[in-house]
Design a protein that fits this description.
The protein is of the alpha/beta class. The chain has 14 helices and 22 strands. Helix 9 packs parallel to helix 10 and helix 13 (352-365) runs parallel beside helix 14 (392-416). The structure holds S-adenosyl-L-homocysteine (SAH), iron/sulfur cluster and FE3-S4 cluster.
Length: 479
C-alpha cells in the first residue's frame, strides 16, 4: 500500500512559540455532500485514552462523524471507521495502545474497506509514529491533535484512495472554534478555555503534542457556557492543561478569575475547573472561588515533588515553601476545601532524603485525593537525557510508601464524613453494583446509594453511612 504523507511531526517545530494565535473557524469541506452520499448505515468506533483534552477532542470527532451520517457503535467489528485516540504522557499509556491496535488489525485484514485510524498525542512524536507505521501496516490513517478540524477531508481521502494517509503537522496551534460536538454526557459538560501548554516541565511531553498556550476568546467561552445552562446542564468543567493561565496570551484584559466569576454568574449549579498550575494561581482566583457557592470547593493542584532541588530540576517554577503558602491561603479562605494532587516519584537521581520531603509535604497538606506516578522518561524531553542512578526497585518501593501516606490521610478524611449529608449529582447505576446508584459530592467524593432512574442528572441529598478509601456508601435523605 502506498503512503500519502500530507505532513509529519517535528519536535523542534512543536516546541516553537510565537506570540499570537489565530482564531479560526474551519472552512466547510467542499466534498461533504459526496462524503455523505458514500456513507450509508455505516458505524464508527472510537476509543480514547488520556486526559480530558482527549475526551473533549473525542466529542468533537463524534460530532463531525455523526454530522456526515455515521452512527456510533461500541463493537469495533461492526464499524467501518475505527479511531484510537492516544495518550503519550507515560510509557504504560502507550503500551495499552500498542496492545489494542494489535487486536484490531485482524479486523482490517478481514475488511479491506475498514478505516483504522490512530490520532492523539502519540503520533505527534516522530519516533513513535515511525514505530507504529513499521509495526502496524494495517493502519491506514494517522492524524495529529491539530488536524481534527480536517477530519471530514481525512476520512474522505482514506475512503476514496488506496493509500495510507498521514497528516500530522507540528505547529504551535490555533484556536479552532469548531462545531458540531456530540457531548458524552447530558448534564455534565467540559468546556475548553485554553489549549496547549508553555510550561515545559522537563519530564513532560504535553507541550510538544498540544502546542503553545492559547486562550479562546472570553465571549466564545461564555457563549458556549450560556448555551449549556440553557440546555439544562448541571455541571460545567472549564478545561486547560494550565487552566488558570487563561487570558495571559490575550489582550482582552480578562484573567481566569474573571472568567470563573462570569461563568458562575450564569447560574450553572456546579462549576469546576482543571488543571491548575500552582505558579499561575492568584489570590484573586482564591477569593472568587470562596465567594460563589456554585464554584465547587475542590481544587486539583499538582505538586509533583516536595523537594526544592527536584522541583527545580523538573522546571516547576515554585518552591516547597511557595506551594505550602498557597495551600495555606486556600485552606484559610475556602472553608471545607478539598485538595487533590499529582505526584511523580523516582525523577532522575532523586535521593531518599529528597523523596522524604515529598512524604513530609503530603503529611502537611493531607490531600483528599491524589494521582501518583513513577517517572517515565519521554524521548525528546530534557529530563530523558539525564543519566539516572535510581533503580526500578527503589522507585517502586518509594511509590508504595507514598501511596501508604496518601491513603492514610484520605481514609481519615473519608471517615470524618460519616454521618454528614452532602449534595450529590447522580451519574447513574454504580459500575460495580447494579442495585446501587452513584454520583459525586461537591468536593468530588464518589458516593454509592440506593436510588432510582429518575434521579439521574439531578442533585440529591445523601447522608454518608460508611466510608471506604476511595468511595462512600450513603442513603438518600428525605425520600
Ligand atoms: N497539565 C496538567 C497535567 C499534565 S499530565 C498539569 O500540569 O498538572 C498529568 C500528570 O502526569 C502530571 O501532573 C504528572 O504528574 C504526570 N506526568 C507527566 N509526565 C510524566 C512523566 N514523564 N512520567 C511520569 N508522570 C508524568
Ligand atoms: Fe506538562 Fe508541566 Fe505543562 Fe502540566 S504544566 S502539561 S506537567 S509541561
Ligand atoms: Fe495524554 Fe495528551 Fe492528555 S499526552 S495526558 S492525552 S495532553
Amino acid at each position: 500500500m502506498k503512503t500519502k504523507i500530507i505532513n509529519t511531526p517535528d519536535m523542534l517545530k512543536a516546541a516553537s512559540r510565537r506570540k499570537e494565535a489565530t482564531v479560526f473557524v474551519p472552512a466547510s469541506f467542499d466534498k461533504k455532500d459526496e462524503l455523505q452520499a458514500i456513507i450509508k448505515d455505516e458505524k464508527y468506533y472510537i476509543h480514547t485514552y488520556g486526559c480530558q483534552a482527549n475526551v473533549r477532542d473525542e466529542e468533537t470527532m463524534r460530532g463531525m462523524l455523526e454530522d456526515v451520517g455515521f452512527t456510533q457503535t461500541d463493537k469495533p467489528e461492526d464499524a467501518s471507521v475505527i479511531i484510537i485516540n492516544t495518550c503519550a504522557v507515560r510509557e504504560n499509556a502507550e503500551d495499552k495502545v500498542y496492545g489494542e491496535i494489535g487486536n484490531l488489525k485482524i479486523l482490517r485484514k478481514k475488511n479491506k474497506k475498514l478505516i483504522l485510524a490512530i490520532c492523539g498525542c502519540m503520533v505527534e512524536q516522530p519516533e513513535i509514529l515511525k514505530r507504529l507505521m513499521d509495526t502496524f501496516k494495517e493502519v491506514n490513517l494517522y492524524f495529529g491533535t491539530h488536524e481534527i478540524p480536517e477530519l471530514y477531508s481525512l476520512i474522505y481521502q482514506a475512503k476514496t484512495s488506496e493509500q495510507i494517509v498521514v497528516a500530522i503537522e507540528s505547529k504551535p496551534g490555533e484556536v479552532v472554534e469548531i462545531k458540531p460536538a456530540r457531548r458524552s454526557n447530558e448534564y455534565k459538560a467540559f468546556v475548553n478555555v485554553i489549549y496547549g501548554c508553555d510550561k515545559f516541565c522537563t519530564y513532560c511531553i504535553v507541550p510538544y503534542t498540544r502546542g503553545k498556550e492559547r486562550s479562546r476568546h472570553y465571549n466564545d467561552v461564555l457563549k458556549e457556557c450560556e448555551e449549556l445552562v440553557k440546555q439544562g446542564y448541571q455541571e460545567i468543567t472549564l478545561l486547560g492543561q494550565n487552566v488558570n493561565a487563561y487570558g495571559k496570551d490575550l489582550d482582552e484584559g480578562k484573567d481566569f478569575a474573571d472568567l470563573l466569576e462570569a461563568v458562575a454568574k450564569l447560574g450553572i449549579p456546579r462549576l469546576r475547573f482543571t488543571t491548575s498550575h500552582p505558579w499561575d494561581f492568584s489570590s484573586k482566583m482564591i477569593d472568587i472561588i470562596a465567594k460563589y457557592p456554585n464554584i465547587m470547593k475542590f481544587i486539583h493542584l499538582p505538586v509533583q515533588s516536595g523537594n526544592d532541588r527536584v522541583l527545580k530540576a523538573m522546571g516547576r517554577r515554585y518552591t516547597r515553601e511557595q506551594y505550602l503558602a498557597l495551600v495555606k491561603e486556600m485552606r484559610e479562605k475556602i472553608p471545607g476545601l478539598s485538595l487533590s494532587t499529582d505526584i511523580i516519584v523516582g525523577f532522575p537521581n532523586e535521593t531518599d532524603e529528597e523523596f522524604k520531603d515529598t512524604l513530609s509535604l503530603v503529611d502537611i497538606v493531607k490531600y483528599e485525593a491524589a494521582f501518583t506516578f513513577i517517572y517515565s522518561p519521554r524521548k525528546g524531553t530534557p529530563a530523558a537525557k539525564i543519566a539516572d542512578n535510581v533503580s526500578k526497585e527503589t522507585k517502586s518501593a518509594r511509590f508504595m510508601e507514598l501511596v501508604k501516606h496518601l491513603e492514610k490521610h484520605i481514609e481519615e478524611h473519608s471517615a470524618s464524613l460519616v454521618g454528614k449529608t452532602f449534595d450529590v449529582l447522580v451519574d447513574g447505576v454504580s459500575k460495580n453494583d447494579k442495585d446501587m446508584y452513584s454520583g459525586y459530592t461537591e468536593e468530588n467524593k464518589l458516593v454509592h446509594f440506593k436510588g432510582c432512574e429518575q434521579m439521574i442528572g439531578k442533585i440529591v441529598k445523601v447522608k454518608i453511612i460508611e466510608s471506604h478509601t476511595y468511595s462512600m456508601i450513603g442513603e438518600i435523605v428525605n425520600g
